Amino acid sequence: MSQKTISAFILICLSVTGAIAVNSTRAADTSDSWIEKAPMNEARSGLGVAAVDGKIYAIGGSTANGSATSSPPQLIITNERFVDGFVGTNEEYDPITDTWTYKESMPTARIGFATAVYQNKIYCIGGRTSSGYTAVNEVYDPKTNTWDVKASMPTPKAWITASIVGDKIYVVGGGVYDPVRDSWSSNESIALSKSVSDSWALNESIAPYDIFASASLNTKIYIVGGFSQDLWHNKNLIYDTETDMFSSGSYPPSSIATGAAVAFDEKVFVFGYSQNFDFTHIYDPFSDNWTIGSSPPISYLFNFGIANVGDKLYVIGGFTYNMITFTPSSANQQYTPAQIVTPSPTQMSPQENELGISPLLIILPFVLLVVIGVGLLLFFKKVKRK
After folding, report:
1. Can you tell me the distance from the alpha carbon of 264 to that of 277, in angstroms, rounded to the nearest whole number?
2. CATH, residue 177
3. 295 and 330 share a domain?
4. What DSSP designation does 153 have?
5. pLDDT of residue 45
6. What is the pLDDT of residue 209?
7. Which helix (H) or strand (E) holds 22?
8. What values do phi and psi take at 274, rounded to 5?
9. Does 361 map to a domain?
10. Do 193 and 228 have their domain in common?
């Protein structure tokens, strides 16, 4: 073996070791982060936000603004004082190009409606118009950029949420919708506008109850926080669609209202505002524990929407409030959750999983020592011959 060959081999081993070290450092970086992205063309609160085929759609909402000199009561949060500013604006956001494009507007201008994506179509259900609450059910097809009208909800409702479980859309605060048959079935268990103490764990009873956040994960719907009779709640109610029963999960770190939730990586991420601070709360259903993520850069947001594209979450729109005036927001904030990289069992033995050490990191130093030893031995033999 020539000296040049030995040197080249040593260099390769060192490079591989460095690459593994860099990769291990990156995998260990588990911090979350926020980035401000391109804002919407039109600032709105109470809008619906949904993602289809890698694009995000911000639909409807209100452009109203005004003054409110006290801590935000329900009338301000739900825009009950204002009957103007309702829009059907529909904007499409491309995360790759970071640009917004106007699309066909929603036929019924409204706020506080539920959105759900089924077979790449966006269902916009219920809400509040300038004339009052509505039961309308309008569906947007991003592929054709057209709207269609479907069967209306049984009862006009606003400030509701919708979740897809199986082939049904569960409207929390309303009923259950079958997109295939275009029909509704009433479900008093999730109609949270009346006392449902018999269905709730621990005999909890609140009425009315709205402006909560919810997200579905597998066959369960997680309903977090809410607002009733000017009270903020920190409840965590778990509705099992298979048994039609509620249970209670551990409560979040703070009371929550006007927030939004999304399921991601087998967890429920809840964003919102509570008692003078913004929050990111993360619930793990398997351990029944909450953790706290970093707060968004733009604070005091109410009635915003949220969407998940890839491994990024987007908090869009809403309104800002400084305890004197409230103003609609066009904000688009991208949140990257903390990532925990766990090697698969085929890559590591149980002992290595416990230690958290890669076999290569153990073997390579010995390989390098052998190579260096061989190189020195050959070098001294060559010197001795001379």
Report:
1. 23
2. 2.120.10.80
3. yes
4. P
5. 93
6. 55
7. helix 3-28
8. -150, 115
9. yes
10. yes
Radius of gyration of the chain (CA): 27
* Number of domains observed in the structure of the chain: 2
Residue 15 lies in a domain: yes
- Residues of the chain short of pLDDT 50, as ranges, are 4-29, 193-208, 340-362
Q: 284 lies in which domain range?
A: 33-336
> What does residue 313 show for φ and ψ, rounded to 5 degrees?
-115, 140
pLDDT of residue 258: 75
Distance between CA 358 and CA 89 in Å, rounded? 53
The pair of structure tokens assigned to 386 is: 């001379």
Please choose, from the candidates 92, 93, 85, the residue with its C-alpha nearest in 3D space to the C-alpha of residue 65.
85
Neighbour tally for 346: CB within 10 Å? 6
How many C-beta atoms lie closer than 10 Å to residue 241's C-beta? Answer: 20
Task: Based on the fold, state whether residues 324 and 362 are members of the same structural domain.
Answer: no
In a domain, 342, yes or no: no
Q: What is the pLDDT of residue 19?
A: 39
CA dihedral 210, 215, 221, 223 (to 10 degrees): -30
Residue 104's alpha-carbon distances to 40, 91, 107, 134, 148, in angstroms, are: 15, 8, 9, 21, 12
In a domain, 65, yes or no: yes
320 and 368 share one domain: no
**Cα(279)–Cα(287) distance, integer angstroms:** 21
The model's pTM is 0.77
Note the pLDDT tens digit of each residue in 104-157: 999 999 999 999 999 999 999 999 999 999 999 999 999 999 999 999 999 899
In angstroms, the CA 302 to CA 289 distance is 25
| pLDDT score for 355 | 30
Query: What separation in angstroms does the CA of 48 have from each of 72, 86, 127?
Result: 21, 13, 10
Do 24 and 37 lie in one domain? The reply is: no
Q: Say which amino acid occupies 376.
A: L
CA–CA separation, 385 and 282 (whole Å): 70
Residue 353: count of CB within 10 angstroms of its CB = 13
